[in-house]
């Protein structure tokens, strides 16, 4: 049904869910001047604007676009309803890509301004998902800062749901029973792993091209290949060259994992899950179907397909590689980092930190406190060998370093790392791994004991400083430079 005209602008949600009439003229008694109401995209300037045809006195358009005479004194034009939208409103799982220009840029129409419109007819519930931690990376809002649900990992934002940064892929926002594709988003997580939701979202996200490149780092007899996933996630394939056995860290895209395993000609035996959020654990159940017999490790009962629950300092083997589990609760209560090393090797170990430690940043405190994050970063990870290579769960480096520069504008290590990271980002190359020693030079969350960081927030206690800079980063507007 159509809704009466209003002098107020529609909110973004209303505009997205209920299409309004296009420029039209309400009924006018004979002898009075007709009042034209202009709404929506039918304006003559601006992006996506459509030029309206002039109304003809005494004539109206039917739904089939035929022109019919009106009673004397009436002047009206109407636009046929978007057929694709009508199908979507009917509850189907149609994907509508036509008429996207009809959602123009007007105040409050954020949810309706789309390039890709993908509507999935599934009930989403009130899940507080993890939308990418990464809200609008290219748009000036900190990736972690969005409070919109679903939520994200480091912050806003994801950002928690979708594919690559270059070129922009899709941002997914929840709208009633469907998903509306929007430009550039983060990754999903949290309780979004409900039955039916994960596969639907994954199927949508994988339709978009991820142009980021993988990277293989050889550490003696251990080989680590970073596999870009979704918008800015990383999966990691860890290979023991001596036995040709392998483990995968956070396999959110199972098919990509299987293809990479076959490319290397190794045997996948182990899944290492850092935490239960969908953009890290959401591929477990499918992967164990594709590769029966896998051992799935994690520190949280909410992890799908879990076969071995681990705790702090638990150990396991992947071929001849030794894996030590490090409990780092805060982002989630069951978060585990995995320290992998080759006994007897002079090569540095590797630590897979999920959403606890990022290059120049840390994850949001969704299920923990500043005190817990301080212990995780400074007392657990910070005590690892300085040359330990850090493989984190997301590509947030450029935005994290911009915040670090804001905290310590005179820190040359931050400025140099930022210039390097921008170059890598422009080439679509990973900025991981870093090292523990490097993090102490430019990561403000690892530097909460430094006077320059404490002075920035006006605190003297490291834990209080941790809390203050996390809060500041949650609302930090990322500069576009």
TrEMBL record:
Record keywords, A-Z: Cytoplasm, Hydrolase, Metal-binding, Mitochondrion, Transit peptide, Zinc
UniProt keyword Acyltransferase present: no
Catalytic activity, EC: 3.1.2.6
Cofactors: Zn(2+)
Pathway(s) of this molecule: Secondary metabolite metabolism; methylglyoxal degradation; (R)-lactate from methylglyoxal: step 2/2
Complex and partners: Monomer.
Known role: Thiolesterase that catalyzes the hydrolysis of S-D-lactoyl-glutathione to form glutathione and D-lactic acid.
Protein's UniProt name: Hydroxyacylglutathione hydrolase, mitochondrial
Organism: Sus scrofa (Pig)
């Amino acid at each position: 049904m159509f809704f009466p005209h209003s002098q107020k602008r529609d909110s973004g949600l209303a505009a997205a869910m209920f299409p309004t009439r296009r420029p039209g003229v309400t009924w006018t008694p004979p002898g009075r001047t007709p009042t034209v109401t202009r709404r929506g995209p039918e304006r003559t300037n601006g992006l996506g604007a459509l030029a309206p045809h002039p109304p003809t006195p005494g004539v109206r358009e039917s739904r089939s676009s035929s022109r019919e005479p009106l009673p004397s004194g009436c002047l009206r034009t109407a636009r046929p309803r978007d057929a694709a939208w009508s199908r979507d409103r009917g509850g189907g799982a149609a994907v509508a890509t036509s008429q996207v220009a009809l959602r123009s840029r007007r105040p409050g129409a954020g949810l309706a301004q789309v390039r890709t419109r993908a509507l999935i007819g599934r009930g989403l519930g009130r899940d507080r998902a993890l939308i990418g931690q990464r809200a609008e990376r290219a748009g000036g809002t900190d990736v972690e800062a969005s409070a919109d649900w679903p939520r994200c990992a480091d912050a806003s934002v994801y950002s928690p749901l979708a594919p690559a940064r270059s070129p922009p892929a899709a941002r997914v926002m929840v709208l009633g029973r469907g998903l509306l594709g929007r430009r550039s988003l983060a990754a999903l997580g949290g309780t979004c792993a409900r039955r039916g939701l994960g596969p639907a979202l994954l199927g949508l996200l994988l339709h978009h091209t991820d142009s980021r490149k993988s990277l293989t780092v050889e550490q003696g007899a251990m080989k680590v290949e970073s596999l870009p996933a979704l918008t800015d996630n990383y999966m990691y394939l860890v290979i023991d060259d001596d036995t040709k056995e392998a483990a995968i860290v956070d396999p959110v895209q199972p098919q990509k994992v299987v293809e990479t395993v076959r490319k290397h000609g190794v045997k996948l035996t182990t899944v290492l899950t850092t935490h239960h959020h969908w953009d890290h654990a959401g591929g477990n159940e499918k992967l164990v179907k594709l590769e029966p017999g896998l051992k799935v490790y994690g520190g949280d009962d909410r992890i799908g397909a879990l076969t071995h629950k681990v705790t702090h300092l638990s150990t396991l083997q992947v071929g001849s590689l030794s894996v030590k589990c490090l409990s780092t609760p805060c982002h989630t209560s069951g978060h585990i980092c995995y320290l992998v090393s080759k006994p007897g090797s002079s090569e540095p170990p590797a630590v897979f930190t999920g959403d606890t430690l990022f290059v120049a940043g840390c994850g949001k405190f969704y299920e923990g406190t500043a005190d817990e994050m301080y212990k995780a970063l400074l007392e657990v990870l910070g005590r690892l060998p300085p040359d330990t290579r850090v493989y984190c769960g997301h590509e947030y480096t450029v935005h994290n370093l911009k915040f670090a520069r804001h905290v310590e504008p005179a820190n040359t290590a931050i400025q140099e790392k930022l210039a390097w990271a921008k170059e890598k980002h422009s080439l679509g190359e990973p900025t991981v791994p870093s090292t523990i020693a490097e993090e102490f030079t430019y990561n403000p969350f690892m530097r909460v004991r430094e006077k320059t960081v404490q002075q920035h927030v006006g605190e003297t206690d490291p834990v209080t400083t941790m809390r203050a800079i996390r809060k500041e980063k949650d609302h930090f507007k990322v500069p576009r430079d």
